[in-house]
Amino acid sequence: QVQLVESGGGLVQAGGSLRLSCAASGGIFSTGAMAWFRQAPGKEREFVAAISRSGGSTDYADSVKGRSTISRDNAKNTVYLQMNSLKPEDTAVYYCAARRAVYRSTASRREMYDYWGQGTQVTVSS
């Protein structure tokens, strides 16, 4: 069973930066594509960014494109989300998600992901 543990959330002022990390248990062959989603109060969970199994392909939501970078270190079985120029509307709980190892390509739909972390809170003050 794969477990995902997020870290790196916190309180930051508008215009600041944060780097989220997600460590996956189960070994380097346990996960395929990985992604970040977020959920703001009263809203549905939405796609933020995804990265393929190899790290060679990435995908971003329009709302974060140009401000965020997703990356992964397969040796550490960890995925990262670097977020810059943060805005108050980025405030949400950020969730890490992973597809099973056989699914190497990125996806932006929640139902395509098999494993989820518990989430980490990101709060951006104006």
Layout of secondary structure:
Layout: E1 4-7, E2 10-13, E3 18-24, E4 31-39, E5 46-51, E6 58-60, E7 68-73, E8 78-83, E9 92-100, E10 115-116, E11 120-125
Q: Give the rounded overall mean pLDDT.
A: 95
Please provide the ordered H/E string of secondary-structure elements.
Answer: EEEEEEEEEEE
Specify the helix fraction band: under 10%
First-to-last CA distance? 40 Å
Low-confidence parts:
none
Main pleated-sheet profile: 7 strands, mixed
Tell me the radius of gyration.
13 Å
Percent strand equals over 45%
Tally of DSSP helical segments: 0
What is the overall silhouette? globular
The multimeric state of the shown protein is single chain
| Secondary-structure content class | mainly beta
Features:
126 residues
Structure description:
By secondary structure, the chain is mainly β. The protein contains no helices and eleven strands. The chain has strands spanning 4-7, 10-13, 18-24, 31-39, 46-51, 58-60, 68-73, 78-83, 92-100, 115-116, 120-125. Strands 2, 4, 5, 6, 9, 10 and 11 form a seven-stranded mixed β-sheet that branches. Strands 1-3-8-7 form a four-stranded antiparallel β-sheet, with no helix packed on it. The termini are far apart. The model has no long low-confidence stretch (mean pLDDT 95).
